[in-house]
Amino acid sequence: MNKLIPKFFGKVVNGKVVRNRQALYDAYIKGLEGKDVEEVLQLEQKDKTLPQTGYFFGVVCAVAIAEGDKTRPGNTTAEVYEWLQGKVWKRHPRTFIAPDGTEIPKAYNISKMNREQLAWFIDECSMVIFETLEIIVPEPTQVYWEQ
Description:
Layout (H helix, E strand, L loop, with lengths): L9 E4 L2 E4 L2 H9 L19 H17 L10 H15 L3 E3 L5 E3 L9 H19 L14
Antiparallel strand pairs: 1-2, 3-4
Helix pairs in contact: 2-4, 3-4
């Protein structure tokens, strides 16, 4: 069974790592008190990942298809994807603000989104599904992935 390994993101400023969620990092490290650890630093991956795209189509869209009888968002992944795009972009007509505070212009198609934009879009779609269909989309950690 795979162990979940948290990822912490940040930026190097004046030779030091400034983490986006320093308090969460500190709490995690505190829980490892007295244990040997290995810390790996790498450049952040900007491109979306295949598992991230797979989660969107295979879980987020599939949940709306399976439970879509309430408002009928669609019977296919393409129909649900189009329905979700319309709902999300209606809520956010121009740009969205990234977690680091930068303004990112929206991409109407996920093929044009980077990893951070797709993560935001998935969160927004999950909220739309919850608000419209009253269904909670499982988190990626709650889904069994066969490797």
